[in-house]
Design brief:
Blueprint (H helix, E strand, L loop, with lengths): L1 H26 L6 H8 L3 H5 L5 H22 L14 H12 L1 H8 L5 H19 L7 H24 L6 H17 L19 H4 L2
Helix pairs in contact: 1-2, 1-4, 1-6, 4-5, 4-7, 5-8, 5-9, 6-8, 7-8
């Protein structure tokens, strides 16, 4: 039963997410009502509220889940020479750029010239969540510096996503990713935590070593 329930939940969320994105492209986010989404997805109001608080929550949660799944799929996909190696801190962002380049109409609706503050902030929070999940524990910095770093990167990525979609034709993902890594990659790489070198402590007793050995 749990498996079939999970599939129904995923299907419902996917229907709602798709309905929202289609309506955004057609008429703009501000003009969409909750009833418009329910009619397009053929989902009841009580079912909607079982998963989301309102239209803004649907946008943030469902879009973040979509991006999270896309990043995970890219990590397990067959080798592609254009895809950066997963050990590179910014590698997951290539997937976001690829999505924007392949779906410019979606990202114009999110980040184009007529985008509202709600859309810009929601998109930045989506990117922030992906970056936080991907970079957690990988950078040699305290929590405060990590939070500031992720905020800085997320706003920069939002700007690049908008640039990809606004260009005609859309900018290639590889070119955009290269621009980002040229600007911030070297500094970020210097803060990546490296595995401890066992040879660095070889031949040295730990503190209190003499007492421990008699």
């Amino acid at each position: 039963m749990t498996g079939s329930t999970d599939r129904r939940v995923r299907r419902t969320k996917n229907l709602l997410h798709r309905a929202l994105i289609e309506l955004m492209i057609e008429c703009g986010y501000d003009r969409i009502t909750l009833q418009d989404i329910l009619n397009r997805a053929d989902v009841g109001r009580s079912t909607f509220y079982a998963h989301f608080r309102d239209k803004d929550d649907l946008l943030l949660v469902s879009s973040t889940e979509y991006l999270r799944a896309a990043v995970a799929d890219a990590g397990s996909a067959a080798y592609d020479p254009q895809v950066p190696h997963g050990s590179t801190p910014l590698a997951p962002l290539y997937t976001l750029f690829r999505l924007a380049s392949a779906n410019p109409e979606v990202y114009r609706a999110l980040l184009g010239r007529r985008a509202t503050g709600v859309l810009l902030r929601s998109t930045r929070r989506m990117v922030e969540e992906i970056l936080t999940e991907q970079l957690a524990g990988r950078l040699d910095m305290d929590d405060d510096e990590f939070a500031v770093t992720v905020t800085f990167l997320s706003w920069g990525v939002v700007g690049l996503l908008g640039s990809i979609a606004d260009a005609d034709p859309p900018l290639p993902a590889a070119e955009t990713y290269q621009r980002l890594t040229d600007l911030v990659g070297p500094g970020l790489e210097r803060r990546v935590r490296r595995p401890a070198d066992p040879s660095a402590t070889e031949g040295h007793l730990p503190t209190g070593g003499k007492a421990a050995f008699g």
